[in-house]
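Weekly structure sync - notes
Attendees: PM, LS, DV (DV joined late)
Agenda: review two folding runs queued last week.

Item 1: First target. Sequence and structure tokens pasted below for the record.
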Amino acid sequence: MASVSWRKNNPDGGMHSLWLHITYLPEAANYSEVVGEGAVEEITLNGEPAALLRGGWNSDTQSYDMGIHAQTIKWFYDEHTVYALKSSDDAMEVEDLIGIAESIP
């Protein structure tokens, strides 16, 4: 896995965050992830299928938590590579996150 992250303090003491994770999976066809009900929205990036996820995994409760302030776009780059672009909810609008994802070669 390769990862790139960006963080910036915001005026109210919080932090804006943006991460790009690139994961190589020998058997990507079997890729799955546990998410909460209503967490996934099917979208397209440059005409290709992708998933927009809201919320995140809560390691304390060992369950998916829609209260976690995160939004993630996941898509297959090729048959073995999964990209995940994640931001804190207040870091940017979903449309901007989609625009960034679409600009990644």
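Item 2: Second target, run right after the first with the same settings.
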Amino acid sequence: MIIGGNAGLRGNMSKIAAFLPGRALAVCLVLAVYAEVSAPGARAAEELTFAMLPQLTNVLTFSAWRPLLDRVEKETGIKFTMVFPKDFAEHMKLCREGKVDFAYSNPVIYAQISTRKKSEEIFHEVFALAMTPKGTDDFYGLFISRADDPGIKTFADIKGKKGWIVGKTSAAGFIFQNAYAMDKKIDLLKDCALTESPGNKQEKVVMAVYNREADFGTIRNGILEIMTDRIDTSQIRILAQTPRYPAWPLSARTGLKPETAKKVKEAFLRLPKELVSAANLPGGVETFIPSKNADFDPVRKVLDKVKFKY
């Protein structure tokens, strides 16, 4: 786990920049300005933590969310420290332990951190849903392959092939695809040789396919669009698209002071469209709208279908 873009992240910026053309250096310099060394348990009275599920690199996550959090801070007077979980499992663990006050997660992870368990007092509750130009259900999975791969021309051709997935707990990086494949009489876990992306990074799945390390990959919508400055995306073929599901939610942990939670939630919902759009979040998120727990029942039905415990 990295908190607040600390020295560990700062020390790796030159390595990260090597993989990002164009604005990478500028992003890294901005990151250095904001970098601070923090330790769990050393938080001020009016200081909260925020984490995005680690779908992107830490640099891209920081560059997307820091301007949004700055705006929330300005409106509420409450400081936000960013937390960078190393993978999906750590993200859930930190949310469950109360070390992440506000989170931006995929709907499958939300289904897990919003389920109250007898042994745990802390869980998360949704208060906002990402809105894209296509609505709040503009979240789905893709199967991709290289466009010039002679062995894979249709979805059915993935059977028996090597595939990279984001992770077995990734909503649109595996679970939605798993349900889709089941309907097509393909068992991804049994019929294909799967590799989970290190750190559950979507970009690494695309690169594995692009570099011919994998025959096919499973990613969410919107990822190819943010990689156009890194690879020739015309070399990537979309084999299939899953049905659409509710988009990513913003959630708050239970136990926050009611007045603090209300103030912060309202600030997130008031974030200007132009500011959210400029964050370039996957899927082209433009704003956030109020949401409730029941909005994610369609996701829970998919989880039941693939026998995913949550």
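Discussion on item 2: The chain has a mean pLDDT of 88.
Action: LS to circulate a short write-up before next sync.
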